[in-house]
Amino acid sequence: MKKYDVLIVGSGLAGVSTALELSKNYKIALITKKKLADSNSYLAQGGINVLKDESDRKTFIEDTLKAGHYKNSLQAVEKMVDSSQDAIKFLIDLGVEFTKKSGKIDYSQEGGHSVARGLHINDEIGKGILDVLYERVRSRSNIEIFEDTPIVDVIVKNGKCYGARSENEVFMSTNVVLATGGLGGLFDKSTNFPHICGDGYAIAIKNGVKLKDISYIQFHPTSLYEEGVDRQFLISESARGEGALLLNHKDERFTDEMKPRDIVANAIQKEMKKEDVDFEYLSMKPLGKDKIPNRFPMIFNELKNKGIDPRYENIPIVPCQHYTMGGIECDIYGRTNLEGLFVVGEAGNVGIHGANRLACNSLLECVVFGRLLADYLNENKFEDKEIDYKITDAKFDKENESKIIFERIREDEKAKSITN
Ligand SMILES: Cc1cc2nc3c(=O)[nH]c(=O)nc-3n(C[C@H](O)[C@H](O)[C@H](O)COP(=O)(O)OP(=O)(O)OC[C@H]3O[C@@H](n4cnc5c(N)ncnc54)[C@H](O)[C@@H]3O)c2cc1C
């Protein structure tokens, strides 16, 4: 049986930011289901928001609340916006380099933003940040990494969390952090990795840990229309920020491309219904022949590999599942209603996104709240207590897990339809 000061389950940006902010005196286990880089954070394309200067504070908060239909927690949103510059400094100090133009940070703009406030690394912000952070995590002697180790449950006794377990191993700790991401893997068509499929939510439900707004699920307007793939390829919203247009089958625009995601996704669905087609188009042609490969090299290459040249052709797109706004209810320090169990990132719901996430806020949430949680544990770690625990043969039952999550989503939808 292994014993740790802190267990972190999940190696996306939320888990890794938490690990790197925790005291170097703590013995930490970073446990992940597949390889370290197999996280949705690594797939992020567009950017991470930052408060550029005080004059943008009110608008940044308002853009986030408006996109979220004012279902957000104002306290959490203010905390995120006010901590954003510090969060970016933390990344830069670790060695992350954001894209610059003529020596100055090049800000990108996505739907729902009144101004350009997204830092980007071409079109691979996730890889750009995490390649640096993973190297840092690997070099910390107090962090032990467990890859290919799906956690199936937490260990609870007398209303307290004492650790977590995989099918074969037990990890004891009185401070367990779930950073297991969202539930996209449960959907037939999602931009998410299939293995990121709501495990944290299933664990929470099984142990009486509260979820909040789990039916708030985001559909991204522009995933590439293709069949028979594990994961739908995303064409970043920042392409629209740079001038890409949405077109129907008559080559006509039918919506404002820069509205928040839910509005644009609905407009596409409506147009598809009207035209009785399975997809609409995104045209990157307005960006110009040179800008497309320069500003979006990964997207350009990926589309070319799939036989589409976005310099000359329209790209068939369709909305698909992308992000989970709801999640395990927590406060700004990641505390849940179960003592010793914490949550951060997409797995949690601290109230940042309300009913619809504003683009580029989720990476920022991971860094800001991962660090807040770590700082809290640096001050207030629950002390280790010995408990008797024997591994039983409880198995991870994916079919049943997805059933209980969908049941909970339906219950949440029903409760909302009654109160609205
Ligand atoms: C294609 C794409 C593009 C995106 N672009 C942007 C963007 O430009 N800007 C932005 O802000 N956001 C973007 N997002 C959203 C963002 O990347 C993530 O949603 C967010 O970073 C979530 O991070 P996380 O650390 O909470 O979870 P994730 O990064 O999803 O990581 C979850 C981790 O938990 C592990 N895990 C899951 N279950 C278990 C288990 N049972 N046991 C052990 N480990 C487990 C997974 O293996 C993984 O390591 C994008 C998302 C996608 C999919």
Topology of this protein?
Layout: E1 2-3, E2 6-9, H1 13-21, E3 28-31, H2 40-43, E4 48-49, H3 57-67, H4 74-94, E5 100-101, E6 104-105, E7 107-108, E8 118-119, H5 125-139, E9 143-146, E10 153-157, E11 160-165, E12 170-172, E13 176-178, H6 199-206, E14 211-212, E15 217-224, H7 237-241, E16 245-247, H8 261-275, E17 280-283, H9 291-295, H10 297-305, E18 315-324, E19 327-329, E20 341-343, E21 348-349, H11 361-380, H12 398-419
Parallel strand pairs: 1-12, 2-3, 2-13, 3-9, 13-20, 19-21
Antiparallel strand pairs: 4-8, 5-6, 7-8, 10-11, 11-12, 14-19, 15-18, 16-17, 17-18
Helix pairs in contact: 1-5, 1-11, 3-4, 4-11, 6-12
Give structural attributes.
single chain, 420 residues, 4-stranded mixed sheet, Flavocytochrome C3, Chain A, domain 1, alpha/beta, 2 domains, 5-stranded parallel sheet, 21 strands, FAD/NAD(P)-binding domain, binds flavin-adenine dinucleotide
Beginning-to-end CA distance, first to last residue: 49 Å
What structural class do the secondary elements suggest?
Answer: alpha/beta
Tally of strands? 21
**CATH homologous superfamily name of the largest domain?**
FAD/NAD(P)-binding domain
Overall residue-averaged pLDDT value: 94
Number of structural units classed as domains: 2
- CATH architecture classification of the largest domain: 3-Layer(bba) Sandwich
Biggest sheet: strand arrangement: 9-3-2-13-20
CATH fold node name of the largest domain:
FAD/NAD(P)-binding domain
- The stretches of 5 or more residues where confidence is low (pLDDT under 50) are none
Main sheet record: 5 strands, parallel
Helix content: 25-40%
Bound ligands: flavin-adenine dinucleotide
CA radius of gyration is 21 Å
CATH class of the largest domain: Alpha Beta
Q: What gross morphology would you assign? A: globular
